[in-house]
Amino acid sequence: MPIDFSRIGGSTISYRALPLKDALERLSRHGFKTVDIGIIPRFCPHYDPLTATDDLRRGIADCVAMNGLTVTALNTGPGVFNAPGADVATTYKAASENFALAKALGCRIVTIQNGGGTAVPQAEWMESARKVAYHLRELTRTAHGMGLALSVEVPHHGTLASDARQASDLLDLIGEGATCTFDTSHIQAGGQTIRQGLALLGDRIDHVHLRDARGEDIHVTPGDGDVPFEHLFAWLEERRYAGGIALEILPSGDRSPDEVAPEVERGRAHIRKALSVRVNSK
């Protein structure tokens, strides 16, 4: 069954320099019906889980509704688990408050960065991955108990799970119920093709980020890089994928919102074109 263009959502990460209210308004004006909300400290702080209140969560829900949007996923980075001196308690608190926002928004998917900080030497990988997997397993159980799904963003270039093979191994360590958010730019930057990434991770994908990459550069508008989005869409269509799909525009450097807006439109146009291309999913 073909994926309709209306299923392609936006991400507040594209307008991370703006307050959340303004980012949501911009995305609505682009014509998106669904959105991801970025909750990544210092990078996209559209919600501070450590100072959040019920009133704030209700206000966000009202703002989403006023813009005619539905939140498909929260894109979160509550902290790391394998760094020396990692503040695990604060990371758990932030994750818990992110879950509370998801419930307030009626949003099932909470994407979480893999908790692995920077890449580690291969000789240290398993020890580090087991430590991270333990905490992600605990958070996965908590999410499931609240009727949510914790979706680990793997691979993520330059982290503990930098490529699709490490991503698959980390999900195996987390164990039953582990799912992932599949970001096309991180697959490409990690040295695998989209098809190779899907072969390793496909059965565990429950959310998708659409970004382009050229080599290891992930600050590329779709259409300007090397990601064959039509291969992804063919695979998703063949498997009748029902999850969320969000376009993320992440230009390099400091761009004003007015400079980002045409990049969002160019990205949307390229994705619309890719959806019309018929290729074999293999």
From TrEMBL:
Domain of life: Bacteria
Pfam families tied to this protein: AP_endonuc_2 (PF01261)
Domain Xylose isomerase-like TIM barrel per the UniProt entry, residue ranges: 25-259
InterPro entries, per the entry: IolE/XylAMocC-like, Xyl_isomerase-like_sf, Xyl_isomerase-like_TIM-brl
Protein name: Xylose isomerase-like TIM barrel domain-containing protein
